[in-house]
Amino acid sequence: MAKVLTTCIYCGCGCGLYLISDRMKLIGAYPSQNHPVSKGCLCVKGWNSYEFVNNLQRLKKPLIKKNGKLQTVTWDKAIDRVARKFKEINKKHGPDALGFLSSAKTTNEENYLAMKLARAVFKTNNVDHCARLCHASTVAGLTAAFGSGAMTNSIEEFENAEVILVTGSDTTEQHPLIGSRIINAIDKGTTLIVIDPRKIELAKHAAIYAQPRFGADVAWINGMMNVIISEGLDAKEYIRERTEGYEELKELVKDYSLEYVEKIAGIPKDKLIDAARIYARAKKAMIVYTMGITQHTTGVDNVKSLANLAMLTGHVGFESTGVNPLRGQNNVQGACDVGALPDVYSGYQPVTNASIRKKFESAWGVKNLPDKAGLTVTEIIKSAGEGKIRGLYIIGENPVLSDPDSNQVRACLEKIEFLVVQDIFLSETAEYADVVLPAASYAEKDGTFTNTERRVQRIRKVINPPGQARADWQIICEVAERCGYKGMNYSRPSEIMDEIASVTPMYAGISYDRLEPFGLQWPCSTKEHPGTKFLHKDRFSKGKGTFSPRPYIPPNELPDEEYNFILSTGRTYWHWHTGTMTRRTSTLDREVPTAYVEIHPNDAQGLGIKKDDMLRVSSRRGRIELKARITEKSQEGSVFIPFHFKEAAANVLTNPAIDPIAKIPEYKVCAVKIEKL
Which of 594, 649, 590 is nearest to 623 (CA)? Predict the structure, then answer.
């Protein structure tokens, strides 16, 4: 028997747990008592984070498609096929005919190598990952406001806040350990404000709960700021010393009278006044949000508006006071940090900056790195359908289920000339691949994840991968070497982290020996730096914080006579992302084995719908069939569908319209119709 300390594979909380093995397979998991995040607790997914690793459906050997069927081959043949085809496409059509999708489920080291493979070996910036589908709006919005697109505070600080404003986040379901911290804070006297279109569990604990219409976030935030300015509750000295653009904001929010905001958002003006006063008067107030804010065609506007609210009241740059976007996946923060994005290298260093390119050319031993931003996830898939992307390398992602308008995604993947998928299971996306490469899970390799509070921490190898499966970093290095590149000759992941630290200022002080036992929070600028508990102390990362006045813009697609309901999508407590891991975990799948649609009791009564009736939900892009779940969590006139279930994939319905800056799809609002079968 052996037990090994590691980091959970699921949400961005980054809980510490021990995996137990009999040295052949995993047999259990339990929490670390001393870990600063989990503190002896785990959610149900964490307790069961070992079972999928042993699943008999794990990929064990490389596969190549022959005559329409995937057949087992040697690693040598598989790697040779990948390298040869990508070099052929590069030579014939140019580097931008290639695309690379990295993964928030793989390590920092592997995401760094994925972007290095794209840029150093194939000279394209067409590299992205699923942050584009969840928190690209945060990166763009908070960087513009503060100079850094990350959570400003630490998880432990929630319990010392006077006020917590939760919006667009079903925290107890999606980030359970943070949800429990918020409930602990309430027990100590913290005032909770919840403003969310769905009546989430935390609404029961809130001093104020307001239920805005979907997509009305900019309007109600501007309304709160109108109250704060008109009542003289703005932090005048803080604004004068630490921000710029205040007068423009003041002029814009004049137009957002309480009557006007109530008409748009549906929030009673008395509630908005109370919320504004409570938040503004607090000495320590924290904003919490997730995809309910970001996944809109106005996602960046939503994020900038929350940043405006925080700066207006002086609630950034102090302990237990800030703006805190909770990262959805275990390493979505880290994948962004190390440059698996089309416009930046690691450390958010722009690819358009000549001196930055020169630095990476020197570090990587190459010349002529590309000087323009590449394509995003959705743009890469769309370009594949148009014949512009001819070769695509996907690591640990499942866009057939995770991307919007998935019928169109399937059509695009069918047209692509050459598709490589590297994963632990034969996903729905892998079925379209020309080559499938079997990867190791988080329990079968070493590396690091970066959690939502910027904590870089270790994962550690517990058992060997099944069959011939290999760690993602080893596979990427072998592809690069087969393509003739000599700059990825690493013997262990710690060497990759050392390289990341050498070119990434905010990770400069990070090394494996310093991460024992529970990691460090960036920025960590030197080998002596203790890490950073909260950001923007004394000054913002960009100097002065920037107010960005944003007008209300309606969602891209609203209900009409035919499609008369609003659909919103998200996760459930029991499952994760596209279900690749949790639906192969018996305890979790037993609890929620099938897809469902949440509908308000009044709507159900009007349509003659009862619990577990089969419904057809249709949008302009497709239709699915699934069971009804009747609940007051949903607003009247709206439905909610979790996106984990391939047999009733919510993203068949969702709208691919994107935010013009972040290029994030509008998963949270689209028009659908409901039919009882």
Answer: 649
